[in-house]
Amino acid sequence: MTEAMFNVTMFLLAALLWAAFGVLLLWRQDYLVELWNSFRGQNLLLQGIEFILLLPWVCALWLWNTGWLLSVRILLMLGLAWVNLYMFWPWKER
């Protein structure tokens, strides 16, 4: 697999994960709380591995489960998603 194909695949995977997060945010907010509680209930080694591999989505789950204003949480999650997708964007100039 070439580097370009790998970059496009990683971007599409990140976009798919953000789309899934967005669907849950719109229609199943209670499931996001369950996901966060499930993540927090795992052993620390597994939590660490998942945190490293899924950092932006774990951060978004944490943001959703804070007690902050809804508008602040949504704004921060949108910013996090935008930055993450920009970093994975395979067609940008180097």
Describe the overall structure.
- The radius of gyration is 15 Å and the shape is globular.
- The chain contains five helices and no strands.
- It starts with a helix and ends in a 6-residue tail after the last helix.
- By secondary structure, it is mainly alpha-helical.
- Helix 1 runs antiparallel to helix 5, helix 2 crosses helix 4 and helix 4 (55-64) packs antiparallel against helix 5 (70-88).
- It has helices at 3-27, 29-40, 44-53, 55-64, 70-88.
- The protein has one domain (3-88).
Question: Outline of this structure?
Answer:
The chain is mainly alpha-helical and 94 residues long.
Keywords:
94 residues, globular, mainly alpha, 5 helices
- What is the radius of gyration computed over CA atoms, rounded to a whole number of angstroms? 15 Å
Low-confidence stretches: none
Helix-strand makeup class: mainly alpha
SS field, number of helical segments? 5
**Order of helical and strand elements:** HHHHH
Q: Sheet bearing the most strands, described?
A: none
Percent helix range: over 70%
Looking at the chains present, what oligomeric state does this protein adopt? single chain
Number of strands: 0
Report the average pLDDT across residues.
92
* Share of residues in strands: under 5%
Gross geometry: globular
* Cα-to-Cα separation, first versus last residue: 20 Å
